Automatic annotation (TrEMBL):
Membrane association type: Multi-pass membrane protein
Superkingdom as given in the UniProt entry: Bacteria
Transmembrane segment boundaries: 6-24, 36-58, 78-99, 111-130, 136-153, 165-189, 209-234, 246-270, 282-299, 308-326, 346-364, 376-395, 415-438, 458-478
InterPro entries noted in UniProt: CPA3_Na-H_Antiporter_D, ND/Mrp_TM
Main location: membrane
Subcellular location field: Cell membrane; Membrane
GO cellular-component term (any): plasma membrane
Domain NADH:quinone oxidoreductase/Mrp antiporter transmembrane: 130-422
Pfam families: Proton_antipo_M
Family: Belongs to the CPA3 antiporters (TC 2.A.63) subunit D family.
Annotated protein name in UniProt: Putative NADH-quinone oxidoreductase
Keywords for the protein's UniProt record, in alphabetical order: Cell membrane, Membrane, Transmembrane, Transmembrane helix
Length: 502
């Protein structure tokens, strides 16, 4: 199959799955088989595209113009290919996990749940493969609309409120700010919105005020990146079922946001213009503020999903900070964080879901000693926590290393201390959870009993164990990932990973 047809297939498969799931709604086994088979087929297509990109190819597809100068164009480059393979690969894990969770928790409206998941992965694929800002914006909105029913899935007052905040915040920022930035770019670039190596606006004459204003519109308009103060939608979205939190708010939605920030930084501004834009330093400071404040808030939360939500806000800001460092090590660190954080945080959320299905516990204070009954879940939680902290040999160590290099190379000494302080805070709010669960102090009360006979369904245990192992595997494959990303990052990724100068 030709590369352009592979892109077309990657976009069509989730839509066909949504139709198949709807048709098989009354037959749960068939419905979920459609989900699993479709997820594997999609991953196979994405892997074929990634292989083409690795060989130096640039798969592209043009579906025509929506209006003069505004075309639905798709082009897969290394950064987009990384996001596509992370999203499609972890979707398979999440699909198995969802079956165990939704059945074990006896959730209602499961057919709608799986349909919206398929539409969400359609949006994520469109974002990953977008060849211009117009296409990226359209699929960004598709992802928002497709995930809203998932956030509000439970249908109670809290779910409806969380869904409203989610929808209004993300639509408000994207239409009010992101769309304004897209239109302004279209005018400045001579009615062109293509992603260009070196930056679409690199050779456009503009004042520092204009460049700063445009950059601020982009970064704060991409609300899915959850940079403070546009972050409050994410903790409110934790009312969603845990599979939604695990995949959409640890992988697809939030990663779509920071991926978009990275794409704008590299392909719209370019390294030189971004570095020369005064607003970059301000946004770097905001990202560092977000890292520390969100980590401090996480420490105050007894509800496990709330603590993980604020942890996600802090970890996402690493990627924005990497983009705003505007050098090769910063870009590489931010890009690697997309994959490493996805594996680690998805593991943590899935562990939280397994605990809830088995015991009904949502608060950390109720989990002391629970590792005696759920050892595999809490071991997976420990491994993922170590990855988020950045301890080798876990995947999260490499992004922090590269971000530290980027901060030092850019002369941003305070960023180094922010990253070190963040790791200390990560230790403080993550490690006590698995340690007290697995090794409670003498005299601790008996752990909470299972509310479900047999405890957590096997699929809700196997999935986080798999992604915990992935946290280790990614550590040892990071060199290959850096080499793959090198063309997108100006060809210097390999030099950075081997200790050379960017």
């Amino acid at each position: 199959m030709s590369p352009d047809m592979l892109i077309f297939a990657a976009l069509c498969i989730p839509l066909l799955m949504a139709i198949g799931i709807a048709a098989a709604g009354r037959f749960p086994n068939v419905r979920e088989s459609v989900t699993i088979v479709g997820a594997f087929i999609l991953l196979g297509v994405v892997i074929a595209l990634v292989a083409d990109v690795a060989r130096g190819g640039v798969p592209a597809l043009d579906l025509g113009e929506a209006a003069p100068g505004l075309s639905f164009a798709f082009k897969l480059e290394p950064l987009g290919a990384l996001f596509a393979v992370v999203a499609s690969g972890l979707w398979i894990v999440n699909s198995f996990y969802s079956i165990g969770y939704m059945r074990g928790n006896r959730e209602r409206n499961q057919t709608r749940f799986y349909i919206c998941f398929a539409l969400s992965i359609f949006g994520a694929m469109g974002i990953a493969m977008a060849g211009n800002l117009f296409t990226l914006f359209v699929f960004y909105e598709v992802l928002t609309l497709a995930t809203y029913p998932l956030v509000a899935h439970k249908g109670d007052a809290a779910a409806k409120r969380g869904g409203r905040i989610y929808l209004l915040t993300l639509l408000g920022t994207s239409i009010g700010l992101f769309l304004t930035a897209v239109m302004w770019t279209w005018v400045l670039a001579g009615q062109n919105l293509d992603f260009v190596q070196g930056g679409l606006l690199a050779n456009v004459e503009m004042s520092p005020v204009v460049a700063t204003s445009l950059l601020l519109l982009f970064v704060f308009g991409i609300g899915k990146a959850a940079l403070m103060p546009v972050h409050f939608w994410l903790p409110n979205a934790m009312v969603a079922p845990t599979p939604v939190s695990a995949f959409l708010h640890a992988v697809a939605v939030v990663k779509a946001g920071v991926f978009a920030v990275m794409k704008v930084s590299i392909y719209i501004f370019g390294t030189d213009l971004l570095y020369a834009t005064p607003g970059r330093e301000f946004l770097l400071g905001v990202a560092c503020f977000t890292i520390i404040v969100a980590s401090l808030v996480a420490m105050t939360k007894d509800n496990l999903k709330a603590r993980l939500a604020y942890s996600t806000i802090a970890q996402l800001a690493y990627i924005t900070a990497g983009a705003m460092l505007a050098n090769q090590a910063g870009f590489l660190g931010g890009s690697l964080q997309i994959a490493a954080h996805a594996a680690g945080k998805m593991t943590l959320f899935m562990c939280a879901g397994a605990i809830y299905v088995a015991t009904g516990a949502t608060n950390i204070s109720d989990m002391r000693g629970l590792g005696r009954r759920m050892p595999w879940v809490f071991i997976a939680f420990l491994v993922a926590s170590l990855s988020i902290i950045g301890i080798p040999p876990m995947a999260g160590a490499w992004p922090k290393y590269e971000l530290l290099r980027g901060a030092i190379d850019g002369g941003n000494g305070y960023v180094v201390w922010v990253l070190i302080g963040s790791s200390m805070l990560n230790i403080a709010y993550l490690l006590p959870i698995p340690i007290l669960a697995l090794m409670p102090p003498p005299g601790s009360p008996e752990p909470r009993p299972f509310k479900r006979p047999g405890g957590a369904p096997a699929l809700t245990v196997a999935a986080p164990v798999f992604t915990a192992i992935l946290c280790v595997v990614l550590f040892f494959t990071i060199g290959d990932i850096a080499d793959f990303l090198a063309p997108a990052l100006g060809g210097a990724a390999q030099a950075v990973m081997t200790g050379g100068q960017p």
